UniProtKB/TrEMBL annotation:
It comes from the Bacteria. It catalyses: a (3S)-3-hydroxyacyl-CoA = a (2E)-enoyl-CoA + H2O; a 4-saturated-(3S)-3-hydroxyacyl-CoA = a (3E)-enoyl-CoA + H2O. This is enoyl-CoA hydratase. Its EC number is 4.2.1.17. Could possibly oxidize fatty acids using specific components. InterPro entries: ClpP/crotonase-like_dom_sf, Enoyl-CoA_hyd/isom_CS, Enoyl-CoA_hydra/iso, Enoyl-CoA_hydra_C. The keyword Lyase applies. The lineage of its organism: Bacteria, Pseudomonadati, Pseudomonadota, Alphaproteobacteria, Rhodobacterales. Pfam families: ECH_1. One of its GO terms (biological process) is fatty acid beta-oxidation. Belongs to the enoyl-CoA hydratase/isomerase family. GO terms for molecular function: enoyl-CoA hydratase activity.
């Protein structure tokens, strides 16, 4: 499929998706979110892809949902079309690891999109925020729930109620991002991280993602049981035999996703 608002490249088992509406600071409109959902679904199904990197420009990962597209909509339209509901679900359904490489603004829906990814690597110029309150609305694709889980109630309330931005240093200190790197080397760092993931067996990276995400949905005892069942199940794979043999033979494992 030819895309107009994103650029997709696949190289060395890593699919890079770049949001590409520079004139609107990558504001998320319906077209972009549909294209993104489609590209992510394709990458998830593509045997050649083992990791995904989602990024924007140096100035903006995404400055939020497209205000110009939304401003005149009625409740009935928003409700009947389940505005951005299906695209949100498509991102959540991706089973392969997704890294958000964030430089510049990640605001509103942009911050929410970054938080839907599995972890965030931030450029030192990154700015995160949920400024929807300034527009007379609130976050609509998970911001109140996910940001609260990342940074705790007090800071999440502060962000959602005042609309202030958080810089990269504060975002790392608060647990929103996994690491901060110089903005100019953001893609290199994100591709290195994705490359590390792509060296592993997709069977175990998918299982790790599934198990970590379970932590948000269940009790500790059930989550630990879920993890143990997945751990045991990986002993049915050729990649487990290969990984453990390679360790003992002091060589690099060659995983084949089998
Ligand atoms: C539509 C946007 C946009 C947005 C920026 N632009 N953000 N267009 N929707 N969210 C456009 C501007 O209108 C402008 O185009 C161009 O991008 C450059 O933006 P400027 O404002 O001129 O840039 P700058 O002065 O550098 O300020 C950057 C900024 C500011 C601080 C990021 O643009 C800003 O505050 N943007 C809105 C951020 C926001 O409120 N996000 C939350 C949206 S609601 P023109 O053609 O006018 O020059 C949301 C809800 C999620 O996300 C729920 C989903 C269901």
């Amino acid at each position: 499929m030819a895309y107009e608002t994103i650029i997709v490249e696949i190289e060395d088992h890593v699919c890079t998706i770049k949001l590409n509406r520079p004139d609107a600071l990558n504001a998320l409109n319906s077209q972009l979110l549909k294209e993104l959902a489609s590209a992510l679904t394709d990458a998830d199904r593509n045997d050649k892809v083992r990791a995904i990197v989602l990024t924007g420009s140096q100035k903006a990962f995404a400055a939020g949902a497209d205000i110009k597209e939304m401003s005149e909509k009625s409740f009935v339209e928003m409700y009947l079309t389940d505005f951005f509901g299906s695209e949100h679900e498509a991102v959540q359904k991706v089973r392969k690891p997704i890294i958000a490489a964030v430089a510049g603004y990640a605001l509103g829906g942009g911050c929410e999109l970054a938080m839907m990814c599995d972890f965030i690597i931030a450029g030192d110029n990154a700015k995160f925020g949920q400024p929807e309150i300034n527009l007379g609305v609130i976050a609509g694709i998970g911001g109140t729930q996910r940001l609260t889980r990342f940074v705790g109630k007090s800071k999440s309330m502060d962000m959602h109620l005042t609309g202030r931005f958080m810089d990269a240093e504060e975002a790392e200190r608060s647990g929103l991002v996994s690491r901060v790197v110089p903005a100019k080397s953001l893609m290199e760092e994100a591709m290195n991280a994705a490359g590390k993931i792509a060296e592993k067996s997709t069977l175990s990276t998918m299982a790790a993602k599934e198990a970590v995400n379970r932590a948000y949905e269940t009790t500790l005892a059930e989550g630990i049981l879920f993890e143990k069942r997945l751990f045991h199940s990986l002993f049915s794979t050729e990649d487990q035999k290969e990984g453990m043999a390679a360790f003992q033979e002091k060589r690099t494992a060659q995983f084949r996703d089998k």
